[in-house]
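Components:
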Amino acid sequence: MSAELSYVGKRLPKPDIAGKVTGEAKYTEDLVIPGMLEGRLLRSPHAHALIKRIDTSKAAALPGVVCVLTHKDCPRQKFSRSTMAEALPEFAFTGERQDQYVLSDKARYVGDWIAAVAAEDIYIAERALDLIEVEYEVLPSILDPFSAMESGATKIHDDVRNNVAFEMDHPFNSGDVEKAFAEADAVAEFSGVNSRQKHLHLETDAAIAYLEADSRLVIISPSQGPHLAKKHLTRRVFTDLDDGDIRWISPAIGGGFGARLALGVEPVAVLLARACKRPVRVTSTREEDFSGYSSRTDQHQTIRVAASRDGRLLAIDQKIVADSGAYLSHSATTSIVNMQKTLGLLRCDNVRGHLTVAYTNTPTTSGFRGYGNPEGAFVLQQALDRLAEKIGMDPMEFRLKNLKQVGDPSCFVPVVLEHTKLEDCIRLAADRFEWSKKWKGWGPKQGGRYRRGVGMSILTHASGAGGFLLEHSSAVMKVLSDGTLNLIVSPCEMGQGILGALAQVGAESSGLRYEQVRVTTGDTDVTLFDIGSHASRSMLVIGNAVAAAGDKIKNQIKALAVAKFELRQVAATAEQIDVREGRVFLVDNPAVGFDIREVAYDAIYNFGAEGGQIVATGSYLSTSHHPNHQAAFAEVEVDTETGMVTVEKYVVAHDIGRAINPLLVEAQLEGSAVQGIGFALTEDFVVDPVTGEVLSDSLLTYRLPTTMDVPDMENMLVEDPLPAGPFGAKGVGEAGLVNPAPSIANAIYDAVGIRIHSLPMSADKVLWTLRHGERAAPGSSRVSGQTL
Amino acid sequence: MGRVLQPFEFVEPSTVDEAVGLASETGSRLFAGGCELVLSLRRGVVRYKRLVSIMGVPGLDGFRAHPKHGLEFGAQVRIRRLANHIWVGKRWAALHEAIEQLHPPHIMNMGTVVGNVCSAVPYYDLPTSLYAHRAMVRIGDGRAGRDIPIDDFYLGPRLTAVGPGEMVTSIFVPPPAADAGSAFKKIYKARRRSDDLHKINAAAYVALDAAKETIVDATLVIGSVGAMPIRIVDAETGLVGKAAGHAAYEAAAEIAAGAVAPMTDAAWVEEIRTEWIRILARDVLEQAASRARSRHDPAEDAHLAY
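Structure:
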């Protein structure tokens, strides 16, 4: 089939690459608006404190300072930094607590936003921060979710009892879990907690806001979903404004990984710009990003699983206690998604999940690539391995035996699983990895200082959130006189390459040349509505909208071409004409045809004709989350004297449907796997257990993997087109981050017979556990995310 | 929490005398590559009105690496220059390994070795390796100079023996003995308390007798465990005269593990730290001795010296 395609399936360079490589691409911090002021935020030095008094007079008197704002100057509406509430039906809002003001009336974490300054230059703004006098009454701070929920604990939010921000049962609990556990042949349990992995996009948080001459508000920021952010801002914060009052521009984005799904400093920039009546840019430093922006939510979990002797999974029971930090943001929704993916990955009749999210005096956590799935997989995949060990089964066979098949309910139960190639993924990756040779059974482990082990993990992930989010998108296409296709779409290009993939779909479906596709994105005045780039959705949802528009363009070209063929004395109906790679030709005789330019030019410069041009819109509504799947196998070496773990080999097979651009798909898989290896082994977000300060606040102490940490890695694609996907494509953006931690954890167990209960599985934890055993490991304590 | 840098005066004098004079005024300081300086400024740890670059001063870019005469480099020599030098790799392996593992690696292109040493940051790696090589630090004021062993260079965290009106002009690393080797290793950990550090490093130098069986000289250094690297002198003396073998290294490592004071009140953090010190000490000694034994025929290497 791919032989019939001109661009889809090809390894083409993405259109924005030149600007990114040469440095020509303009990011928010590169832009200069005439008359622009610089804004800076004063952040709390205390983890928990009442603000008794703020005196801004000295700061305001500093020459060059234009205004100083505090919580008294903020709208009295509470909002959430997560904008996802606007994409959920009204009844589902409970998971998106609106719990903060733009500037806080109380310090709830070290770094909480207390006051904002706008000044003629950034140096003056910075100096003004030192002149703001704040009198704090320090309150006892709560740094872990379990103490937060104890009765009598200090309240972080006055209207929240026991600091429980959110609590729910899994909406798709089913069967009789207790009975299944009682009757099962084997039961296993694993408890663990993930760390607060940082997004660490290269571009730190920034926003510009200004009023145009007609008082219309313009916001420029690296948002992953400007349409939704605009709706959220007008509905929750600046309620005097409405949809039409804001134009939101997302320029080039220096990485997102989910962080830009939450509002950053945009509301502060708007507040300052409206107060000063001048353009204001608010920026933040890397250290501020570490201490105050966002990270993955640490979710403490216990998962129990039960099976019959022959390896049938009978029951899963999951309990989550998540630590949202000072404000809720995405913490509840990522935990819900964790339950969905964890409890819905395999066939199982008896399923129970329960979730509690607690507030603590730590930085706010947020959504992160994988959105709950990596958090859950770390615990579930180890519980599954323990269960397989109990019944003496090969962990791969055990998983294969319990896979969901087409026709089963998907992990989002109301939606039926229409397509899965997970079994193919497992078998393909296992063969390449030589699992049957390398896995030596559950028996006693080898000796020696350096020990090798192998482990595996599987996953299901969404391609968009069709079925539970407002999952639709639209694209506009217009054809210029030289056959250039101007493609206007909504995704945010954060480095994932989506603009290139969409350009390929656009060129393929319209029949125009890929080299002549010009993509426009990121301006809400130009693009049509879309909920943003997340949930591995852009390729499927926006791709389908682009394909729909492309089909219409092709039909318009065919209709216009009829007259052109007549001029050449060739009689052809539109149905007998095709368009490919910028050439119009006869289906039956491809040699007869001409360049698209002839049609395109006359479509616009057509004196005496009807007017108009070749233009089309395409829309798509997704009603399923069309899961993509992946299997991964890891081989590790453990140095039993230092505890250091090295990943030697990592093999992945991904159920992609069809790779629109295999180069970009492999890049996504590789990049997310490396991010997953960092999550598994080196990235440790540490909060001081006494002061609540972030200790790992630079790239010296928070260790990102480098190219030297990347193992021998293979990413294979299982291509079987998804009928609902654009040219058969599914999503791929997030899945790669899910499997590394659990497969490495299972490989560590295979090597040395211990399991680590908290991420990252750093050398100190491994060594401690090797010396003292799992039970005594500080990592399984209540504050495991922070002490170990 | 990170700050926005305030504007400062930047001067690039052309003599050492002028440089140290400008830097001795209040609110001024010298710098070379600036890697550590910018970080400290951003964190608000230090503030300066004037930064005096030494990178334009003639005569501070000297570089010489000779297996018989030693390694000497001026204050302007960037880390990259040493990283790419074959004799540094062969004869000063501990220093080479410390450079090789710099994280992030880009630091090499901007940072200087002297600047790295002068920063006196407790967790830096190059000083630990230079302790092992018994480097001498040359301090000058533009007129006279004095040489002090690197062991006496650090007075406390971010505090050195460089007095007002002085600067480090170069560092000299003596040539190793004929049958000697050195090694450097480190392990990263997470900072668990505000007074904790995020890694441990160790370096060793071992010289053997002509038969390559007995230890005749040794240096053992543990770093990133306090304000400055620590020479484990008892272990060094204990090694001399011993047969070069596992038992000797184990014994020395045991002394090292007992010699380092705890940094936090968390027992498990300290247990792992102590164990790592023991393992690192043993491994660097073993590796250094193994390099000492595997010396090439000098004739093979001779052409590289010129």
